[in-house]
């Protein structure tokens, strides 16, 4: 791989361009490293205590009655942020929108099941399940086919 770095005062902000003939694991790793630099911490409220949440353990995040919760195995921890803000924070961790009110972790998906109305039922490694509405099925399938990572469980 060839790396070119152009340092010049005329550049107002860093810009990265990668030229390749096809997508590869190496490119996936590079983009993951670049995205990791600007990650924020995610905090939740559980039993009147603030807890630090590990995005890799979250199955999905959902909004219900104007509140946002992270679902991890059998725990539902409230997050005091808007759903779109949580989506921005979790994007580098391979989270995608499942519906208008749900963001899911692609790395925690175990299997899919087609529903009669065109939605997909997603089963997570923890045993939780959630639905992907028709609008979001194709982008998720494309992302997984393109190389969305898995935890090799």
Automatic annotation (TrEMBL):
Sorted UniProt keywords: Cytoplasm, DNA-binding, Transcription, Transcription regulation
HTH LytTR-type domain boundaries: 43-146
PROSITE patterns from the UniProt entry: HTH_LYTTR (PS50930)
Lyase as UniProt keyword: no
Keyword DNA-binding included in the entry's annotation: yes
Pfam families noted in UniProt: LytTR
Domain of life: Bacteria
Molecular-function GO terms, alphabetical: DNA binding; phosphorelay response regulator activity
Protein name from the UniProt record: LytTR family transcriptional regulator
